[in-house]
Specification:
Radius of gyration: 18 Å
Order of helices and strands: HHHHHHHH
Helix content: over 70%
Strand content: under 5%
Distance between the termini: 47 Å
Number of domains: 1
Largest sheet: none
Number of helices: 8
Shape: globular
Oligomer: single chain
């Protein structure tokens, strides 16, 4: 990739998966970058939904309810991306020497979602938890690199920002997020029309 040139989408995903720093300096602040970031987040969300679709398939969920249950999971993941972006934007603007607009941070965080495109592997028998852990670590390393190269933060600032962002998200999940998670699961069960159990 030539410096300053915006790569195609597949090349962007490849560079983001390889944690190539040039992608974090080239795309933030561009309309193409925001489009790519949102597409990556949607693909990651769909990938996780497809991984969960095996459970829906095993429970013989009807096609319409199948699509509805997958849509709920996808929308939930997109909401998580928006929350993570908002948290990192808020914390980062407090810690960093230069403030960034929300759209730039949305690109940075969206690119860090690239490893989650492989989330459908999480349902692999016996290895699902290991794969989930590896993808989570990969994404955390990606966000630290993205904040360092894309925002210009020092490494300690990037670690602190991503760490605080993670703590805020975990706190939200364990407090106000619990009723939301309960509602999401209830909606998924209702959408599926059957109890969701792995046979």
């Amino acid at each position: 990739m030539v410096a300053g040139e915006i790569p195609g989408f597949l090349e962007t995903v490849r560079l983001a998966l390889r944690l190539n720093p040039t992608i974090y300096t080239t795309l933030p602040g561009t309309a193409q970058g925001l489009t790519y970031a949102i597409t990556i987040v949607l693909l990651a969300s769909i990938s996780e939904s497809l991984g969960q679709s095996v459970v829906l398939f095993l429970n013989r969920v009807r096609p319409r309810r199948f699509v509805l249950a997958l849509s709920i999971t996808t929308l939930s993941n997109v909401a998580g991306y928006l929350l993570w972006t908002l948290t990192i934007w808020s914390v980062g603007n407090l810690l960093a020497e230069t403030n960034q607009p929300w759209s730039v941070v949305a690109v940075i965080v969206g690119l860090a979602y690239a490893p989650q495109i492989l989330a459908f592997f999480e349902l692999t028998p016996y290895l699902g938890n290991l794969i989930w852990g590896m993808l989570s670590l990969w994404s955390m390393i990606a966000i630290v690199g993205a904040l360092h190269f894309g925002w210009g933060m020092e490494t300690w600032q990037a670690l602190l920002t991503s760490g605080l962002g993670w703590i805020v998200i975990q706190s939200v999940r364990r407090t106000i997020g619990r009723p939301i998670l309960h509602l999401q699961r209830r909606l998924q069960r209702r959408a599926a029309g059957v109890p969701l159990e792995v046979a």
